[in-house]
Design a protein that fits this description.
10 helices; 17% strand; metal ion binding; binds iron/sulfur cluster; 294 residues; metal-binding; 12 strands; alpha/beta; iron-sulfur; Cobalt-precorrin-4 Transmethylase, domain 1; Rossmann fold; single chain; 4-hydroxy-3-methylbut-2-enyl diphosphate reductase activity; iron
Length: 294
């Protein structure tokens, strides 16, 4: 079995930065315990490993009596940040600079009188945080059909941005649909570089392997998108969080001569390595058993 790992798999710049901030704080801070505002990233295994170190996800800041709070990569809704400041809670802000960039463009476009359209998942914390920058006056569009919500505003000037981890292809589709309905559109591509790189690498690998594994949290938006992209190219694509899930489709894996891997931006290296090692192990066992692949 040949194992092909897509370039640019695993932790992105923003997640590495956040994890380093947590690590530094853990070593230096006297302000313990440490909390993350919700799960620091959408990866249950990483969240569990932080819990083991005593760094706990917290949803309700009013329950915080002491310690420090880490604001996650997705950014924080403005009203909540105001509350944290009012309560004088010690915090470090691990909001990814690419997300902060989307906040700035939302504010700029809004200030200039555009109706701000945010392409993204309605309930995703990043999208909620972006929209909160403009007092939730933006319109969130998940799919082309959602544009119907605003077509009666024909004379509006539209400023469109994207959730940082969206698919560029889908963003282009939304922009095209907007152009069919509105005269003046200001487009800012706020999809982050890490997302585009991962998606391009995933396409490259999914096209040339027999079976594709997409590794990452089932709650991770960017991983789900990698899955959708790979699945559209290769129906033999599986989304897993850890190597343990491979057991349920092991026979299909063993029938594959080339297995591709790509991991979402919130998937740590150790999980990718465990998957690679497991694939090598089952392949070795298979060879030992002397069964021939098709
Ligand atoms: S995926 Fe992009 S926007 Fe999100 S944390 Fe990583 S670098 Fe930042």
């Amino acid at each position: 079995m040949k194992i092909v790992v897509a370039k640019n798999s695993g932790f992105c710049f923003g997640v590495k930065r956040a994890m380093k901030m947590i690590d530094d704080l853990e070593k230096q801070s006297k302000e313990k315990p440490l909390y993350t505002l919700g799960p620091i990233i959408h990866n249950p295994q990483v969240v569990d490993s932080l819990k083991e170190k005593g760094i706990l996800p917290l949803n309700d800041v009013s329950k915080m009596k002491k310690g420090s709070l880490i604001l996650r990569t997705h950014g924080v809704e403005k009203t909540l940040l105001d509350k944290i400041k009012r309560k004088k809670i010690k915090y470090i802000d691990a909001t990814c600079p690419f997300v902060a960039n989307a906040h700035n463009y939302a504010k700029k476009l809004f200030k200039e009188g555009y109706l701000v359209v945010i392409f993204g998942e309605t309930e995703h914390p990043e999208v909620l945080a972006i929209n909160s920058q403009i007092d939730n006056k933006g319109i969130v569009v998940e799919k082309k059909e959602d544009i119907k919500k605003i077509v009666n505003m024909k004379n509006k000037r539209i400023g469109v941005i994207s959730q940082t981890t969206q698919s560029l292809e889908k963003f282009k589709e939304i922009v095209t649909e907007l152009m069919d309905n509105f005269k003046e559109i200001y487009v800012v591509n706020t999809i982050c570089n890490a997302t585009s790189l991962r998606q391009n690498s995933a396409v490259e690998v999914a096209n040339k392997v027999d079976l594709m594994l997409v590794i990452g949290g089932k709650n991770s938006g960017n991983t789900k998108r990698l899955f959708q992209i790979c699945y559209s190219l290769n129906r033999n694509t599986f989304h897993i969080e850890t190597y343990k899930e491979i057991k349920s489709f092991k026979e299909r894996v063993l029938k594959s001569k080339k297995v591709g891997l790509v991991a979402g931006a919130s998937t740590p290296d150790w999980i990718i390595k465990e998957v690679v090692n497991y694939l090598k192990k089952i392949d070795k066992e298979e060879k030992k058993n002397g069964r021939k692949k098709k």
